[in-house]
Specification:
- This protein has nine helices and seven strands.
- A seven-stranded mixed sheet has the order 3-2-1-4-6-5-7, with helices on both faces.
- The chain has helices spanning 33-52, 64-72, 85-100, 117-127, 162-167, 178-181, 187-196, 200-206, 210-213; strands spanning 10-15, 57-61, 76-79, 105-108, 132-136, 143-148, 171-172.
- α1 packs across α4 (117-127).
- β1, α1 and β2 (57-61) form a beta-alpha-beta unit.
- The chain is globular.
Length: 214
């Protein structure tokens, strides 16, 4: 099965309000958790927009700063309806269907400060060879990317143990793409991300501590 062209993918990116995001993360002294979470989101969105163009990105958020940034990239902004991550994702998928109809669609987490356009493009090419597929996080238990060649087949089950839940209906792809698979939820993950190399906004927030964390 040949993969859809990268430019044909519509990607939903859920982004939590930075004020309440990343409660398990303990940034270095002098760095606000909210600033770091916001930087993660902006670096993620920049990479996604460069990979598929802003018009194919649907950002679901209640965070005004993230919404403004996404709009500046040419992305669609969908108000987070509340009710958790999967509720936000479903709202984004409904918006995709309403605005552009059926076709290849994906969900990418919004806390991937290491992701690059190239890494995402490679993952979409690999996932696109399957009816539905997902890429687990670095630990192998969570999910960073969920895809479907037809939008109605995309059924999000994010949360604790999401890799096992998604494996019931989708092909698991443990791709050798650490820049894609390094979501940041805690201090260990942050250190791993810095060692790999984070995006410019995350690096700017961490500038005084990057060498120590690496």
């Amino acid at each position: 099965m040949s993969a859809p062209d990268t430019s044909s993918w519509r990607i939903v990116v859920p982004v939590k309000d930075s004020a309440s995001a990343k409660s398990r993360l303990h940034p270095p002294p002098g760095i606000r958790r909210a600033d770091l979470a916001h930087a993660f989101a902006l670096d993620t969105l920049t990479a996604v927009a460069q990979a598929v163009t802003g018009a194919h990105v649907h950002v679901v958020t209640a965070d005004s700063g993230t919404a403004s940034f996404a709009a500046g990239l040419g992305a669609w902004v969908v108000q987070d309806p509340g009710g958790g991550l999967n509720g936000a994702i479903r709202a984004g998928l409904e918006h995709v269907m309403t605005t552009s109809g059926d076709g290849p669609a994906a969900v990418l987490l919004g806390d991937l400060p290491t992701v690059t356009p190239a890494a995402l493009s490679q993952a979409l090419q690999a996932c696109g060879r399957h009816r539905t597929a997902f890429v687990p996080d670095a630990e192998g238990t969570g999910t960073v990317l969920l895809t479907a060649r037809a939008l109605p087949d995309l059924v999000p089950a994010f949360g604790t143990g999401s890799a096992l839940a998604h494996a019931r209906h989708s092909t698991r792809l443990d791709l050798d793409l650490p820049l894609l698979r390094s979501d940041v939820d805690d201090d260990v993950a942050l250190g791993r991300a810095v060692a790999l190399g984070v995006g410019p906004r995350t690096a700017a927030v961490l500038a005084c501590d990057c060498a120590r964390l690496a």
